[in-house]
Amino acid sequence: MKLSLVIPCFNEAGNVRPLFDKVCEVLENKIDSFEFVFVNDGSTDETMANLKEICSLSSHPVKVVDLSRNFGKEAAIYAGLEHASGDLITLIDADLQQDPAYVLEMVSYLDANPECDCVAAFQEKRHEGAFRAWCKRRFYHLINKLSDTEFVDGASDFRTFRSYVRDAVLSMSEYHRFSKGIFSWVGFNTYYMPYDADKRLSGTTNWSFGKLCRYALEGIVAFTTVPLKISTWVGCLTSLGALIYIIAVIVEKLAFGIAAPGYATIVILILFLGGLQLLALGINGEYLSKTYIQSKHRPIYIARDVIDNQK
Ligand code: UDP
Ligand code: MG
Known about the structure:
- Helix content is 51%, strand content 17%.
- The chain has helices at residues 16-27, 47-57, 73-83, 101-112, 130-146, 163-171, 179-186, 209-223, 226-256, 263-295, and strands spanning 2-9, 33-40, 62-67, 88-91, 118-123, 155-162, 190-195, 303-308.
- Helix 5 (130-146) runs parallel beside helix 8 and helix 9 packs antiparallel against helix 10 (263-295).
- The radius of gyration is 25 Å and the shape is elongated.
- The protein starts with a strand and ends with a strand.
């Protein structure tokens, strides 16, 4: 049995070597054979130089896929999966937040349970600000309401799966990728294993709050079309409201001689309906822009070079 560790790296100069050492320490003599597939996602620090060094000194197979620029973690994962040749594949971050000891647990679980196809780690307790954690919970609640695909709150990309799960994930070649949704969408038997995330060894997270919100929106647009239908329903409701209001005004005028109240009502209605129309247009625009980019069939990533210490 061969295990491939796919590791996306963006400005992780201080982490790649400690991660490599730790993985070797934990997996040697426990797993028959394992390979590293590092993806350098357009790092601007010494990450690539450090990866080349690892490649030359390692007694284990190491591949380094060097992307031509920063394509984002999702694209980096895709690139790594394309180059992973193991029977089992582990996705793990480069920053040592995910203790490699859990990889052994995942592999043992898969060995002991042949009917299980994937073991995904999920965080029972989030070590982050209360507001951020609350936003994430709301996001999962919302997307699970809107989408048929199931999203598990706290599930991370840290997971180990069999090679046919990898093939299924690679067969989804959409440009705007949302791994959590993609892994749920392809199905297969997944066991969710609780784990405790550590602090980053060095560097800072690449996820600002704004970037997270953008990513959440991508997930919603990628996995549900319900927002597109909102304007239909809101349009129906407001038209019905308008009809009732017209009847009320006519009755008031004919039966009681009250003139239709003017200015304030009109301004409020124009602003309200104008706002709704812009919102509906914006939602349509989100889907249209994704369709537009996808229709160009651009590659998900471009590699400058692939280094392989076995060649
Ligand atoms: N990453 C990447 N490309 C990016 C951003 C992040 O390859 O554009 C990698 C990063 O090097 C790390 C993993 O994705 O190995 C997770 O990133 P990070 O630690 O910033 O995210 P967090 O742990 O805060 O979710
Ligand atoms: Mg991290």
